[in-house]
Structures are given as structure tokens and as C-alpha cells.
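Long-time lurker. I teach an intro course on protein structure, and each term I like to show students one example going from raw sequence to a predicted 3D structure in C-alpha cell notation. This year I'd like something fresh instead of my usual example. Would anyone be willing to generate the C-alpha cells for the chain below so I can use it in lecture? Attribution to the forum is fine with me.
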Amino acid sequence: MPAAFTVAWRSGNSRSGSGTFRSTGRLLPRRDETPVTEASTNLPISDLTRSDEELLVAYRTGETGAFTTLVDRYRNELVHFLQRFLGSRAAADDVFQDAFLQVHLSADSFDADRRFKPWLYTIAANKARDFHRKRRRRSAVSLSAPVGSSDGRETSLVDLLSGSDESVDAGLLDQEKQGMVKEVVDDLPPHYREILLLSYFQKLSYNQIADSLQIPLGTVKSRLHAAVAHFADSWRAASERETRRKDRD
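-- Reply from a regular --
Happy to contribute to a lecture. Here you go:
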């Protein structure tokens, strides 16, 4: 692994990790900077086309640019995931940095026969749980927070959960119902919210979720089934309450 890697933190203040990792530059661009693309980066084209696993192996043999490519590759999707997980962009930025610091520190122990993405999400999820424990409060997923889409329009987590079960009304995107859906999902047990995020937001496979959460494949399937059923039952109950309220009005 390279002797040191440069990184700048969201707050603009330097932090030091353990080992030889030190903060002397910038890993992430400012939010107003243009995202890194083939045209806007000085990284070799080979870095942009190599697999995640190849990049991490290259990094631990001394190619610091390979690490930069990994960070650029996962910046948007992992920060978005963490923001849904933590309910805060600032917290997501912090945990993102902590996750990649851990990637740096653990690069030598990475098994090149494994997939990098589930390994990264395992690290990020663990860091997010640590963040929650330190703040001593229950995790809450915000359905009203915007999620960027490929066409540039804003959507919400409701879009991702509306197709999770046939019993869930296809009209969930109706403005009046979004608040109800938010309440239902916010009331789910944390392990149910977590697995719904990984499956329906991040689109991880069952095997990848099992790897990320470090639970058996059978547990993934049963927990996801239970999470969807819990959501559907709670949604029906909330809908019935809303119907009775309207009838009284």
C-alpha cells in the first residue's frame, strides 16, 4: 500500500487516521465542482475502465491514482445511500470519508477474489451504525428527502418502495399519501429499513446484501420478505385510518 494518501474532509479541517494515512490534500471535490469524467480528469483512461477489484489491487501496490478513481466512482451512489440511511447529507459526507479511510487502512487485507462493492458497503454500513450509536438515537429514513435521478429530476424513496409489493397501492406517489408512507417507513424497525434500502434503493442482490450485512443468505430473504410484509400491513392500516378520518370529515 502507498505510504500515504491525501484527503480533504468536508469540514475543511484536517483529520489523521491511524497508520500512515494523513490529510494533506483533497480527496473529494467541493460540491460546486464539476463531477469527474473522462474529459475532466487527468487520470489514465485505464483507471477509468479497470474493475473495482483491479483498482484496489493496483492501489495497494503503489498506484495512488487508482484509489482516487474508486472514490470518484462511488462518491455519488454511496453518499446518496448513506444520506437515505442516516437522514442527513452532512452525516453522509462524514461517514463516506470514514468508510474510504477504512478502505485505505484495510486495503492489504482485501481478498481480490471477492467483489469490492459489497465489501465497501459492509464497511459503510458498519460506519453508519457506529455513527448512530455515538449519537444514541434511532436511525430514521427520510422519504421526503430528494433522490437524484438519471434524468436530473428529483424523486423520493417513495418511488422506490411503491413497487415493492402488489398489495401496496400503485398510487403512493400521490402527494397526499407521501406523508403517510413516510410515517409508515420511519416506524419500521431499523433492520427492516436497512434491508429495504439495500434492496430497493441500492439494488443489491441477495448475495451482495448477505455480504454487506454479514448475515446468511436465508436471513436476507426472510428479513426482506418480512420487511415488505410489515410495510404493506402498516400501509393498509394507515390507509384505513385515513379513510375513516375522511368519512368523519
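Some talking points for your students: The beta strands are 147-148, 154-155. The chain has two domains: 1-138, 147-248.
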